[in-house]
Predict the structure.
Amino acid sequence: MADVEEAALEERMKAALWFSVGKIVDEEALKLGVNATPQFIGALTELLWAQIGNVSQDLRSFARHANRQIIATEDVLLLARRNDDLATVLRSCLEQRNAARPKAAKRP
């Protein structure tokens, strides 16, 4: 029964991804004045789905290696280590998030 529920959840997530990819492609195609076929959107969705699977597996592995069950920020930064531009954007977002957080009062 759990396998059936898991498969149904995966199908719903994949359908949501297809919908989102389709919306983005349609918006960009309108801007560029080009047409995007449903086959293109489907292929892009499959490519993205595979990439999401690879990234999630890597993140799980990094967390397990650090003896954690929860994926942490440092796991994401480690994943982005080979893409300098992405790493820079992620670090910038992290710095902004940390700056926006209220500082906890130090205890004596």
About this structure: The chain has a mean pLDDT of 92.
